Amino acid sequence: MTRAFFPALALAAGLTALPAQAFDLDNMTDQERAAFQGEIRTYLLENPEVIMEAVAVLEERQANQQAQADEALVKDHAEALFNDGGSFVGGNPEGDITLVEFMDYRCGYCRRAAPEVADLLEFDGNIRLIIKEFPILGEQSVLASRFAVAVLQTQGDAAYMNVHDTLMAFGGDITEPALRRIAGDLDLPADEIIAHMDSSDVASVIDANHDLGRRLGISGTPSFVMEDQMLRGYLPLDEMQRVAAELRAE
């Protein structure tokens, strides 16, 4: 609580008996300070909604400050976010809004978000999607992402999207035999993909995504960037649509 706040609060509390110099906390006597604090306490107990109003103002101010900081981060890392050359690009490649998703195949909220993102692409039709493989939930997550990136690099976009959707819905442990079964079910060359998983090309994509995530302050999945806005955490379809509409209205 700042010094400037005390006189205004004292007036609001009806504390008019103290002389003006009493509001100088350094010059208050112990008696004046005790009376001042007592009046403040009484006022807040009688008007607790003031505390909630102050908290709401503080939260709004902090949210605005975070949004401004996030916009600066996105601007500083725009090339790595939107044009890294190693991430899957889907949706409408010529869309007027780009949505970047940082995801982990073992993340429950990523799985929950997957159909919401798919619906956004279908209903909107003007969204460019970039998927950043961002495994942070253990070795199985890393294995799944290495497999997905290997598919992208050796088999192309369509095969990657099929693998991505399959891994998102996969309920078992991610192991090499499981990945071989997935490749077989999707009519993909398992041996070629498995051999490529340990390549430096695959590792460089995942390492770059982890480095970018650290610089953006991303510590959980899913995390999204829509144009210049950081959207941290799971968002339902209607919220993503609202953000897109606001961006287009700017």
Q: What does this 3D model show about the protein?
A:
With 250 residues, the chain is of the alpha+beta class. It has two domains: 5-76, no CATH class; 78-249, 3-Layer(aba) Sandwich (Glutaredoxin), CATH 3.40.30. Helices cover 61% and strands 10% of the residues. The chain has eleven helices and five strands; from the N terminus they run ααααββαβαααααββα. It has a five-stranded mixed sheet with strand order 1-3-2-4-5, sandwiched between helices. The protein is elongated and about 85 Å long. The protein starts with a helix and ends with a helix. Residues 1-8 and 11-22 have low confidence and may be disordered.
CATH homology superfamily name of the largest domain:
Glutaredoxin
Helix content: 55-70%
Assign the structural class, choosing from mainly alpha, mainly beta, alpha/beta, alpha+beta, or little secondary structure.
Answer: alpha+beta
As for the CATH topology of the largest domain, it is Glutaredoxin
Order of helices and strands: HHHHEEHEHHHHHEEH
- Overall average residue pLDDT: 88
Low-confidence stretches: 1-8, 11-22
Could you say which overall geometry the principal axes of the C-alpha atoms support? Answer: elongated
What CATH architecture of the largest domain would you give? 3-Layer(aba) Sandwich
| Cα distance spanning the termini | 36 Å
